[in-house]
Structures are given as structure tokens and as C-alpha cells.
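Example 3.2
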Amino acid sequence: MKNKKGNRKRAPNIGNRGTVETDPIVQSTVKRTGFTVRKLLQAYYRERGGLRLNLRESFEEREFQELGPYAAHSRNSRGRDRYEPECDIRTVYQRDRDRILHSKAFRRMKDKTQVFLAAQGDHYRTRLTHTLEVSQIARTIARALNLNEDLTEAIALGHDLGHTPFGHSGEAALNAVHPGGFRHAEQSVRVVEVLEKEGQGLNLTWEVRDGILNHRTAGKPSTLEGQVVRLCDKIAYIHHDMDDAIRAGILSEDDIPITIRVVLGDTCRERLNTLIHDIVEQSRGTEYVRQSAEIAEGMRMLRELMFANVYRNPEAKKEEEKAKKMLISLYTYYQEHPEQMSREYRNLIGCGEDKTQVVCDYIAGMTDQYSMHKYEELFVPKAWAVY
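Structure, written as C-alpha cells:
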């Protein structure tokens, strides 16, 4: 292609996808025609021989066009520990989300305690429903802030994969007996890096693992998407644990001080709405995810109320000591008899993993019902079956 002087025009620099958007020819063409960069690239590839952007590349281009300036872009991920060819349909964060969703650890959360131990009621939250509520709230905020929803969802779905049976009482039990302690955020990372897929792990991107590790209160996620999940985890459990406590008759709306209700709202629904809107309003256009001082203080007071009336309530927690003793007994037993663990955990020891750590992995991965079944099998005498 030549200009009016007969000289060949310079082709746009599209050999390197990372410099396409800053190429002056591309910029001037976008301004003149109103086309997106993706459309220009498609036209260029057609002229060069009928090539097309695959779906993943189209999604990556859409992210660049639509996401905010501080969002994490799939094409800029720091990548995986082990190289894998790119998918032609899904971005790296979409693949991570799907891997978590299809993992065994994710399915086991349906039978792990949230607050009320091994609750028999149909409507009490479990660790799985908590995870889904965190994901829903986080995606709402991420979308409002023009952040990467796929990365946000992957972090949210994976943040509690390493949680123990019987909620934080199980975590406290393992923390007391396991050398070096036990923290469920670190265990969640171990699940996705090592334990899933027969010791191969899920090979997730760095950003997802960083968000999972840093979802705890003291965590410092490297992405805004991780910051969203860190806040939404607290919002979700305060909201739904209060709803469950009201259902259980442990708490009522009248127990919430007027100072909190004036700031956050008179019902669970109003309080959730207030917390979400405040984060969106305070974080829009900034490089931080944050709350206003007033709403943050109201949430802190509500959290303290929950600890005083629910999380440390003798009625709600009366079975916790039994659960702790049971898990400690199982931990001690399998340290002495690792050959009686499931095959996949025995194989981990055979591949060089530390036996003490693998026993901890085995106990942490149990559901409430499975741990009770194993305890009964090992420690409760059975009646003689012959009459």
C-alpha cells in the first residue's frame, strides 16, 4: 500500500499484541473510524489471509477496551507455575474458575460447617453456600467497579477450599496439634497447588492463588479483585450468619443496637445493600477497594456483636469442644497409622510429602459427616452382630 507520493505506508505494529494499543497508526485509525482495536485487527488478519482472532483473544481485547485502569487483565497475568498452552475459548482466569468449580475440595464444602455444627435444618448455611454468597457479592462489586469479574469469581470460589470440618473450631483443633500451626487460607493454597488431581494440583494463575492466600483480615492482596473478595468474605459471613442466628432463635433484630441500625439499616437486606453501595461509592476510580469510615465502623460494631452473641454463644457452640477432641483424636491416630488413610493421601507420602503434613491434609479435607463416621469406626465399640 502506497501513499500519494508513491512511498510504501508503514504497516501498523501488530506483530506484538502488547504494543498494538499504543501504535500511532492504530490510534489514529481508531479515532478516525470509531472502530475498536479488535475490529481493526480482524480486518488486518482477513487481509493477510483470512485469519481471525480466536474467542479468547476477543475476550482479552474486550477486557482492554472495557475494564477500568486498575483492573487485572487476563493477558497480563503472571502465569502458572507449569506452562500450559492457552485455551482458544477461555481466558486464564475463566479456566481457573472452572478448575475450582470442578474440584473435589469444592464439592466437599457442601458438608462442612459454616457456624452451626452439622446443622440438620434445610436452610442453614454451609461452607459451600457461604462461598457462593461471597462470589455473588464480590462479582456485583467487581462489575460496578469495572474490575475483572472472572478473576474475582475464581478467588471467591477458591478462598475456603482448605477449610476444616466443623468450621473454625476444626481449624483451632488442628492449629493446636499440628507443628507450625494451621491456617485455612494457607491450606486453601496447598489444596490448589498440591492436593487436587492426585498430587498435581490445579496449576492456577499467580493472581488467583495470591487472592486466596490473602483473603484473611490481615491479608494484602496484590490485585483489586483480591481486595474485593477479602472484604466480601466478611460482609457475607456477617450477613448470613446473622440471618441463621435469627432463624435459630439465638438473636433477633431487637438485639441490634440502634447505633448500628441507623448507620447500616434495620434488616439483613438493608445492611447488605448499604455495605455493597458504600464500597462501590468509595472505591470507584481509585486504586484501592475501601469503605467509608462511618460504614467501616458500623460493620466493625456489627461483627463484635456477632462474636459476643453468636460465635461465642454457649448454645450455638456447645458441641464445639467435642468436635475439637474428635479431630485431635483422629489426627493422633493417623499419625500412628498413616497406612489407613485414603489411597491418594498414602500416595502423597510415597511421593515424598511429609507424613505429618499429609495427615493434617487428610483431616482438613474431611467433611463433618465423614469425620464423625471415621471416629465412630475407629473409637466406638460395635455391637456383636450374631444373635
